[in-house]
């Protein structure tokens, strides 16, 4: 059984202010590399753990609970329209019907300049995506039938920091239907980054691999992924999102491929 890594004592260093290096960043405080485990494939993480006795890493998690406001939102109508009013100069018009179109904006809470952005509604068998323009505006369409109690939204983005360097990352969120349809601004930065020394434990749930919604073995998944570079590949490591998407209670990481 594959060993599981954990970060038992997170440090307070700011990931955004660290210098970018290959597969991670460099921490000036402890003078060592901090591996970015959010963007490394499972096989590469295993290799890092096997060849290093002491490492620091970064892993992003979501809070395992939802706010009372979040849970209280319910779908009360078959048609939902958030139109412009005199007091609400929103550029967003959300229409809930058989084909749903959301017009919104990707925004940076740190006022970072957006170089590129893409927002996706994630399901196991298909990805519904839309690219944002230079101002962060996007138009995302998807069929009503794909909406669930908890909808997974992923934002892939590249920003330009104060030193004129490009920073590429992604953010995943869980939104109820009314919250998804009612949002105007979608913040791109993630809020639950954990950085610290890595230790190994013995027990770990299995990873799951899906191709267009069909569960496949790891070896077949990796083979298809290598042979079809045009396929869209997503990996999810956060416990809450992984369980909501897979509908499995005992699962570690979730890897998805989309051929269309």
How is the secondary structure organized here?
Blueprint: E1 4-7, E2 19-21, E3 24-27, E4 32-36, H1 42-51, E5 56-60, H2 68-72, E6 99-107, E7 113-122, E8 127-131, E9 137-143, E10 151-160, E11 166-175, H3 177-182, E12 185-187, E13 193-201, E14 208-211, E15 214-216, H4 218-227, E16 232-236, H5 239-246, E17 254-258
Parallel strand pairs: 4-5, 6-12, 14-17
Antiparallel strand pairs: 1-13, 2-3, 3-4, 5-13, 6-9, 7-8, 7-10, 10-11, 14-15, 16-17
Structural classification: alpha+beta
Q: What pattern of helices and strands is seen along the backbone?
A: EEEEHEHEEEEEEHEEEEHEHE
Share of helical residues: 10-25%
Helix run count: 5
> Count the strands?
17
Largest sheet: 6 strands, mixed
Residue runs with pLDDT of under 50 for 5 or more positions: 63-93
Overall mean pLDDT? 81
Radius of gyration: 19 Å
Give a structural overview.
With 260 residues, the protein is α+β, with helices and mostly antiparallel strands. 15% of the residues lie in helices and 39% in strands. The strands form 4 sheets. The protein has a 6-stranded mixed sheet with strand order 1-13-5-4-3-2, with no helix packed on it. Strands 8-7-10-11 form a 4-stranded antiparallel sheet. It starts with a strand and ends with a strand. The model is unreliable at 63-93 (pLDDT under 50).
């Amino acid at each position: 059984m594959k060993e599981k890594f954990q970060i038992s004592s997170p440090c307070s260093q700011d990931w955004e202010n660290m210098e970018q290096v290959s597969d991670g960043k460099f921490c000036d405080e402890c003078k060592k590399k901090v591996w970015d485990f959010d963007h490394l494939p499972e096989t590469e993480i295993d290799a890092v753990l096997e060849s290093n006795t002491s490492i620091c890493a970064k892993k992003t998690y979501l809070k395992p609970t939802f706010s009372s406001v979040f849970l209280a939102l319910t779908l009360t109508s078959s048609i939902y329209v958030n139109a412009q009013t005199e007091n609400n100069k929103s550029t967003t018009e959300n229409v809930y019907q058989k084909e749903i179109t959301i017009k919104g904006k990707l925004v940076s809470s740190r006022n970072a300049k957006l170089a590129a952005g893409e927002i996706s509604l994630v399901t196991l068998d298909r990805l519904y995506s839309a690219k944002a323009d230079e101002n962060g505006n996007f138009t995302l369409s998807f069929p009503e039938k794909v909406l669930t109690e908890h909808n997974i939204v992923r934002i892939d983005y590249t920003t330009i920091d104060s030193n004129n360097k490009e920073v590429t990352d992604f953010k995943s969120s869980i939104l109820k239907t009314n919250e998804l349809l009612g949002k105007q601004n979608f913040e791109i930065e993630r809020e639950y980054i954990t950085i610290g020394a890595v230790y190994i434990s013995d027990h770990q749930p299995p990873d799951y691999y899906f191709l267009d919604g069909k569960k496949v073995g790891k070896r077949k998944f990796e083979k298809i992924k290598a042979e079809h570079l045009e396929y869209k590949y997503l990996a999810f490591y956060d416990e809450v999102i992984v369980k909501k998407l897979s509908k499995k209670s005992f699962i570690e990481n979730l890897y998805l491929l989309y051929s269309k």
